């Protein structure tokens, strides 16, 4: 459902081959511009998973799974992680095995939707490569802009708050544009009418209430998080208590 026919070539046992990154791939991973616009990851998936004919079509659950498989093929299944105990705040260092995480993959349901106030059903799909990269870029640019304003000593607090508000408004508009691309169609329950026109869907998303937007974004996050479970359990070296932490799939640090 998520991919065009022939987009992924599999073996007889319905698997795709994953190869290690080359030296050039690893250099590309350190190129900021290529990482920010997503081209580095697209090229790496194309090189390491040749069975995927168009990496840009990949949906986020599959992207995370393939990046993990590429990391294991390139650097082995052991990953060093630093975590903070949720009980005593002690900084811990652990070595974890990534293989069980890769094997935890679950299939994504073909039907993903959310009921809006009993009158509409919004049908959703996971983010693709473009949406994933735009979301990451959005967050980075917003944080950079806020930090730059905070460090600007020539502006008073009121002006800074005004500028921050304007920038956050722009980022929110971009977020809604990204969100709209994950709406496949909207069903009007009273009439059974299905709205599939993208322009009408964009208008719908731009005019929903904040609680409705929050509910849709929460459902999208749930869909995007389907697949491998990156949550790991650790025992604190200091207090001996068990705590959980999710692995960060930030490609800059994950492939170090």
Describe this structure in words.
This protein has 256 residues and is α+β, with helices and mostly antiparallel strands. It folds into two domains: 23-106 and 228-254, no CATH class; 113-224, no CATH class. 46% of the residues lie in helices and 16% in strands. The protein is built from ten helices and eight strands. It has helices at residues 23-28, 32-36, 39-48, 60-75, 99-103, 129-151, 157-180, 198-206, 210-224, 251-254, and strands at 78-84, 91-97, 113-116, 120-124, 183-188, 193-195, 231-235, 242-246. The strands form three sheets. It has a four-stranded antiparallel β-sheet with strand order 3-4-5-6. A two-stranded antiparallel sheet has the order 1-2. A hairpin with a 3-residue loop joins strand 3 and strand 4 (120-124). The longest helix has 24 residues, at 157-180. The two termini are 34 Å apart. The model has no long low-confidence stretch (mean pLDDT 88).
Helix content: 40-55%
Our count of domains comes out at 2
**Portion in strands:** 15-25%
Arithmetic mean of pLDDT: 88
Helical stretch tally: 10
| Main sheet makeup | 4 strands, antiparallel
Number of beta-strand segments: 8
| Span between termini | 34 Å
Unreliable runs, pLDDT <50, ≥5 residues?
none
Q: Output the radius of gyration.
A: 21 Å
- Helix and strand content put the structural class at alpha+beta
The main sheet orders its strands as: 3-4-5-6
Shape: globular
Oligomeric state of this protein:
single chain
């Amino acid at each position: 459902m998520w991919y065009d026919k022939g987009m992924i070539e599999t073996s007889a046992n319905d698997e795709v081959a994953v190869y290690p990154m080359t030296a050039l791939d690893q250099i590309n991973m350190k190129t900021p511009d290529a990482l920010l616009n997503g081209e580095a990851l697209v090229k790496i998936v194309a090189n390491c998973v040749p069975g995927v004919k168009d990496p840009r079509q990949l949906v986020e659950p599959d992207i995370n799974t393939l990046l993990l498989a590429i990391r294991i093929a390139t650097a082995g299944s052991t990953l060093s992680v630093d975590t903070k105990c949720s009980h005593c705040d002690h900084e811990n260092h652990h070595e974890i095995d990534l293989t069980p995480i890769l094997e935890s993959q679950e299939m994504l349901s073909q039907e993903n939707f959310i009921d809006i106030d009993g009158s509409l059903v919004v049908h959703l799909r996971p983010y693709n490569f473009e949406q994933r990269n735009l979301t990451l870029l959005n967050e980075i640019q917003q944080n950079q802009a806020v930090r730059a304003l905070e460090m600007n000593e020539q502006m008073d607090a009121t002006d800074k708050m005004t500028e921050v508000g304007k920038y956050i408004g722009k980022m929110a508009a971009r977020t809604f544009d990204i969100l709209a691309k994950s709406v496949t169609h909207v069903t009007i329950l009273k009439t059974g009418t299905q709205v599939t026109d993208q322009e009408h869907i964009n208008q719908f998303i731009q005019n929903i209430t904040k609680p409705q937007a929050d509910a849709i974004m929460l459902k999208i996050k749930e869909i995007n998080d389907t697949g491998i479970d990156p949550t790991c359990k650790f025992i604190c070296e200091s207090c001996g208590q068990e705590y959980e932490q999710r692995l960060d799939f930030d490609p800059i640090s994950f492939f170090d």
